[in-house]
Amino acid sequence: MSADGFVDLHLHVFPAIDDGARSLEAAVEMVEGLADVGFRRLVGTPHADDTRHPYGRERIEPLCEAVRDAVRRAGLAVEIDYGAEYAYGPRFLADLRARRLITLGGSRYVLLELPEDAMPTTMSGTLFEVGTAGYYPVLAHPERCRPFHDDPDRLVALAGGRALVQVSFRSLAGTFGRTIKKTAWKLVTEGLADLVATDCHSPRELKKIVRPVVAELEKRLSPDHLQRLMTGTPVRMLQTAA
Ligand SMILES: [Fe+2]
Asked: What is the pTM of this model?
């Protein structure tokens, strides 16, 4: 483990706001388990979309403060911050054009989930627009997008210079089946992923997903490579000002 500890830029740790932690107790249990495997900084990313998750930072911020306080009271040395996981769609485009995107820990990076079945032809133009607005997109688990399964080069072409590629622990653990697991490991081991994130939704995933994936990453990657994916890159990202 790096002396600086791991940084997670994608997890659902805020209580009862989305399909993540159900209570403050569950949130603290998640943080405790993540601290145990070496995480020192977590950026909670509740879903943000047009329909089921229309809330903005006014709802997220107080939950972040509540978790931060509870974590401090529990004596855990873990920093808690917030961002959002935007679904690609009208809500994302509206927040982008109004320059009010909720970024990762106040940095210039914004977490974006792409459609899984077909990639809109406008996507590279949209990513370019995100860049010209002063943000930098991070693609959340693109290994789950069907168009990239047979053709990871398509992802590389889309992201190249315009976005970072973030692979999720849940995909690496096989939660979404063999094809997605294979694509996820290919992106990580062949150096096509810029960073990895737990996308943890529940304390139950600590034993089933987080611990085994950390162990497997430690086994399959060089210490330098692992450090870049889980500490170096996310730390540098958080140092950029929005
Ligand atoms: Fe997520």
From this structure: 0.96
